[in-house]
Design brief:
The protein is of the alpha+beta class. It contains 21 helices and eight strands.
């Protein structure tokens, strides 16, 4: 249940005319009063003898008892209270009780017998509007300071008592929601999202991996946005605004939004913290090398992302709060970059994951930038390497990257849960769910190829690998050998052995890195981690059937990463929950 305090107004009758009217698209059905300050106020919706003017005059009566110079300029208080889409339809009596509780909690009518006059109007199944005059019966102004937070707190209690959908508590770091007018405008224009939401996503992606003001604004311009910059008399750039070219006001002018109004971390000073952190402690020679080096292949960028994401998991799990917060924020950039450059069959879920995780990227724990350079560079590499479709190991390396990002996002959900950041934890969990679906789409083909290769291995080789698995992982061996994914693992073990690695040592190290006993498919878990640890091609579809990786040189001392999403929370039915590490 979401209560929203709207801007104070000066026209009670005008607001009542809207609430009792047909709505912008005739969406108001049966407008009527469900409660009022005295329980006897005229109802223009159900009483044919009552008018909206009658109700307005009754509500404003205390206002006119004051001298003209003592009346507040904006005296109309307006609060909407909306139920969740999956909540049952509440009766008028229930909405009436909700209205009385909200006006009491916010200080509009605290129950002292001299509160403000108010009325609650219902014109849809899922919400009500409360209108009040901000002058008490005794002529004083009400104490409605922080009424929004007070209404939210009361709504949480109402949800529990009525068994409604329980909304996670906020902390004031969320991006501003679209207004009702913005939503109606988007609907009239046939947009799926409001201009504010489209701009927020576009600006967020423009920031991804950027390293300077110039690059950031070039990306905004390339995305087709209108840009206005705000400069000091000295010429120093202070801020910016953006607009969609076709989003106009009644005068035909573009509607601009400052970055800070899109999201708290999209103001220019907050954006600059990212690339100023990138430059800290980086030698000039390395910065010049990074500038000279052209974009690598999409597959290499995805492999690099998987490796960096694993290191970030350890930081989020064990680092200090400020550094962990920086890595969590940078993880959002990586998700944006991967969504922007991935193939169509994974792009939608990755985009939804990035959008959901946007809420989890901010909290009151201020991020210390600079320590997140590796993740931001991974995001930059993904953007610069471009779309992956049809270029090398697309599906396999995308699956590898998603695999590790899932663990990073899940670690972020756990971190937020431990800190009591309910909305952020919930957002990260939703993002992880989208990553599960994206992983399944990306991994199906490469894992299928490995499965077929494993089925074609000779019986003596399979027997030898069976013995190897039983010796290396005695507690998990029987589970692994009974899984369909065993054949894909067998093919991977064969490649690792042909490349000069000790597969028994690899398997033992992989199993020790993260607990595997509760995974749905341990073999799927080990496939990606072994391929990454042994530097094997992610996509085995073009390798010869014999000596699968014989020409590759082993990388001595390379440490494997954690187990894969495929056999843990993403691939099948297992779900990681806040506070529960895998």
């Amino acid at each position: 249940m979401i209560p929203q305090i709207h801007k104070q107004g000066a026209n009670t009758l005008g607001l009542l005319s809207y609430l009792y009217g047909k709505g912008t698209h005739e969406e108001h059905v049966d407008p009527h009063l469900v409660a009022s300050f005295d329980g006897m106020s005229p109802d223009p919706g159900r009483d044919t003898t009552a008018t909206k003017k009658d109700l307005g005059q009754l509500l404003d009566q205390p206002l006119h008892l004051l001298a003209a110079d003592q009346r507040p300029d904006k005296h109309v208080w307006h609060c909407s209270v909306r139920a969740a889409p999956d909540d049952p339809v509440l009766a008028d009596e229930q909405w009436a009780d909700i209205a009385r509780r909200i006006v009491a909690a916010t200080g509009i009518d605290p129950g002292d017998g001299a509160g403000c006059r108010w009325a609650a109007v219902r014109h849809a199944d899922d919400h009500i509007h409360i209108v009040a005059t901000l002058v008490r019966e005794d002529g004083r102004r009400p104490d409605h300071h922080r009424s929004g937070k007070r209404a939210q707190a009361e709504a949480r209690l109402i949800e529990k008592e009525l068994g409604l959908h329980q909304v996670a508590r906020g902390d004031g770091t969320a991006a501003q929601r679209p207004t009702s007018a913005e939503r109606h405008k988007a609907k009239r224009q046939g947009r799926e999202r409001t201009a504010r939401e489209e701009l927020r996503e576009t600006v967020r992606r423009a920031v991804t991996g950027a390293t300077s003001d110039e690059e950031f604004f070039d990306r905004l311009a390339s995305a087709g946005l209108l840009i206005r910059k705000r400069a000091a008399p000295s010429g120093d750039l202070l801020g910016y605004k953006v607009a969609l070219p076709d989003d106009r006001n009644a005068q035909g002018e573009p509607v601009f939004y400052p970055g800070a109004r899109l999201a708290p971390d999209l103001s220019l000073p907050r954006i600059r913290e990212r690339w100023s952190g990138d430059a800290q402690d980086v030698p000039a020679a390395r910065r010049e090398d990074a500038i000279r080096t052209g974009p690598g292949s999409p597959a290499a960028a995805r492999r690099g992302t998987a490796s960096v994401a694993w290191q970030a998991v350890l930081v989020v799990e064990h680092g200090n709060d400020a550094v962990a917060a920086a890595h969590i924020a940078a993880a959002g950039e990586v998700l944006d970059a991967l969504a922007k450059t991935s193939a169509a069959h994974t792009r939608r879920e990755l985009r939804d994951a990035a959008t959901a995780f946007e809420r989890a990227s901010r909290s009151h724990v201020r991020a210390v930038r600079g320590h997140d350079r590796a993740l931001r560079q991974a995001a930059r590499d993904l953007v610069q390497s471009g779309p992956a479709l049809g270029r090398g190991e697309d599906g396999a390396t995308t699956a590898m990257a998603i695999d590790m990002l899932f663990f990073l996002i899940t670690a972020a959900a756990h971190w937020h849960a431990r800190k009591g950041h309910a909305q952020q934890a919930e957002a990260a969990t939703r993002a992880a769910a989208h990553l599960r679906t994206a992983y399944q789409a990306a991994s199906a083909q490469p894992l299928g190829v490995l499965y077929q290769r494993g089925r074609r291995l000779s019986r003596p080789m399979l027997q030898r690998q069976t013995v190897l698995v039983r010796e290396a992982l005695p507690e998990l061996a029987e589970q692994i050998l009974a899984e369909p994914g065993w054949y894909a693992l067998a093919a991977t073990v064969a490649e690792a052995e042909a490349a000069g690695h000790d597969p028994a040592a690899l398997l033992s190290d992989l199993a020790a890195r993260r607990e595997l006993g509760t995974a749905d498919s341990v073999s799927d878990v080990l496939v990606w981690r072994m391929r990454q640890a042994a530097d094997l091609p992610a996509d085995a579809s073009h390798l010869p059937e014999t000596s699968t990786a014989g020409s590759r040189s082993a990388r001595a001392g390379r440490r494997p990463g954690p187990p894969s999403l495929a056999g843990g929370a993403a691939g099948r039915r297992h779900r990681a929950r806040p506070g529960e590490f895998r």
